[in-house]
Design goal:
heterodimer, A: mainly alpha, about 0% strand, B: alpha+beta, 2 domains, eight-stranded mixed sheet, two-stranded antiparallel ribbon, 25 helices
Chain lengths: ~220, ~675
Amino acid sequence: MTPIAVAAAAVVVLGAVLGTGARSARVATLGLTMALLFSPFVADPLPDTLALATRLVGGTLAGYLLLVTSRRAVAPVGSPLGSLALLAAAGAAAVAGFQPSILGLARQGPEEAMAAGLACLILALPAVVAARDTFRLGASLVVALTGILLVRAALVGSPSGAEEVAITFAIATLGGAVAFLGAVTSAAGGTLSLDDVGARPDGARPAAPPAGVPR
Amino acid sequence: MSLLAFALVTTAAAAAAYATRNWRRAGTVVGFAGLLLTLLATLAIDAGERFEAAGGAIEATAYGRLFVLVGLVSTTLVLVIARLTAWQRNAPAAVLGGTVSLALALSSPEAAIGLLACGGAALIATLVALAAPLTPSRVRVLAREVRGAAVGLILGLAAVSLVPASEVAVPVGRVAVGLALLVAVLAVAQRLASIPFHARASRLVEAAPALGLPLLLAWIPAAWAVVLLDWAGTAIIPTIDGFDLERLLVASLAVATVVLGATAALAQDEIEKATAYAMVAGGSLVILAFASLDPVARDGMRAWLPAFVASAAGLAAWTIAIRAAFGTGRVDDLAGWMRRAPVLAVAFAGIGIALLGWPGAATWEGRVAVVSGVVGSPAPVLAVVAGVVPLLALVRLVIVGAGRPGPAAIAAPGERPRWGAAVLGPARGATVRQASPTESETGVDEGAGPVPERDPGARPAVRVDLADEQAGVAQAAIAGAGGSPDGRGADGASADAEPHEVDPLGAGKSPGSTQAAAWTTSRPTTTDGSTPDADGGAPAAAGTVHAKSGEANAQPTSGQAATGQLDGGQADADPARADPPGAGAPWRGRAGLTPGAHREGGRRLAIPRLSAGGSVSARREPAGDGAATSARYLLEANRVPIRAAVVLLLAVTTLLVAAGVFDLRQAAAEPPPRGIAALASAPGR
């Protein structure tokens, strides 16, 4: 257990709570970016400088893409459970992550990675299953991916340099996918909700056709 | 360096194809040139070459090269057929974008890296393939696909993390191994749209008829299967003894998929869904391979997968060609299709034979190996059953096709080449395009109504595609399908359209404002072979299309009244008739969705339901003079036989792959790059 890993794990969990629970999309984006940027530091040993820089660039890019999506949010996002409930769930999952595995899994990485990873997965699970808002869906997918990567770091050990590059690629691609999905959902429905896609917006009833053109 | 060169060439080609997608001709040329270059770069990959960077390594393998090559060739041929109906401008970029990631996934020495690359490939290909045209149904499918790809990636990573391939050095509990196996199967099943994830197949083929089956339901999922099978070969197989319950669960899932998938395929009315569910049932063999986990079965499955990919592409191409030729995709309406389209019939039979295989073929031996691995002893009869059941839906299509020709078959143009069109010009020979709801994806939503049944004696249908919203290109075509088989006497004229306020918001108008665009069509009035006036003769119909937020009315100002409504980005005037004297042609109008946003008083407003209008004007093509014009007419008049020939070529390719040529079986049996030795040498382990 190293101080850097513990601090980074705490920031990641806090970021994940904000990312999935904050009602403001911009605050949620801030939380997601925090989680993405600090998750590579929850490792022992730390990745080499180049791999770390790659992850940071990828996290920043994904954070920016999520910020683009958050600008389209016109309604509150975030879990209906509220941040406090999410924080409690994350805390419980983190405590479970510090316990020995009932599956008999040998850990090659730090325990705090397992704790943070399980917390992220617990936080993301409800929205991954049921989210109808594209920002919330995207945020939960990013948190879930971060969580499984942390669990992997705990079980298998620090990722290799090549794996860090692949992780960066996947995170950036997911961020881009969320941004694109948000753009098209907003364009097709006026909001980020998938339920509004194709629905006629209020006040957009068509005017009468010009004279001579029957309806 | 060959692998690096491949990655660079393919990435550049994907970027160029995406950048030029809005220019119809340039996009086509750049897209196919990119696909060709990528094919050459794939052929140039040197198997065994190792490229080390960032503390890891990528190793090109003969199997990976063959897998990419088969997928690329078959998908390219599907795109050729799609281009001969209606162009999907994002298609080449989607294929190329996915190809880069797939090649890297199959060359990676670590399963996690392979899965991350597969996840990236799925996301990129899905986004690009479904990005245009953007209809409400496509947006919903896109959201589901993004969610599905990410969840599949997370499940796969969970599996390979629970039991890393370095398991020999790090003992793992039995429960963890069993759990990892089940989670891996779940990931593959979700990607292959197996039961209970089968609804994905239906949604994808509706949203992306050309790429849904070959790319998103077969090629990319097959790569996931290869990566996870290779992982299972080193992480699970050494400890597989005593995992009867887990293997029973996996085998049950495979059996449920083959039985229910085949049943669902038989129950479908549309050929796209029937073939998609048939492939879902066929994909159950991949799940069964995880229940077997025998090294021989794993090699057999690796040899079977390329043929599966090629078959899926062949069936997708066949459905496109059939719908374009017959104007319908309803199974009941296709009675006698084999008599009218014998080349497509031969191709269809070839694809079915390739899927089933024969003794000695890669597909046959692969299936026998997998089934025998599960049963524990040679089980050729069970293997035959496992191969036949998914094909029942295809047998039904054969039975329907061999029957007495129905109206659609009678009215359909034959496959005989029409050489005279090059001389006579479009007035006498051109079949420009035929009305079909999925022939063009422009503005087609899932709410699209069926194509009106064509009376054998009816005049050609007139189709007006009003919007290709992002490109700002509208198309219109007057089909000459009602003419005689050789094209003589068919009315036909091409109608090019100029965009007209296809982006009303760009002009700063508020939502709900009326957009109006005039459309007129004209076509030759002569059907006896004489050359009409240069301006195309009397107008068949002229009128206006008024589109607002979600609604449009179309009203011809000459001919009989016709109305249509644009709802959900689509205007469908069917079954209204715009009848100029002597024409009697039913017409369909469509308009695409134009999503966008604008600012009003400093506030950004997103516009959910937008209208699209198109100014469509028909012009009489000059008579055929000059080689270029003649070639164009020749192409226009011979789309049906060309499409049939390409499907046949695809069927031959599928048969060759199924037969195991190109050293497929040797390549499939080679050790994957993600062996234990490679993992042990990786840093950080």
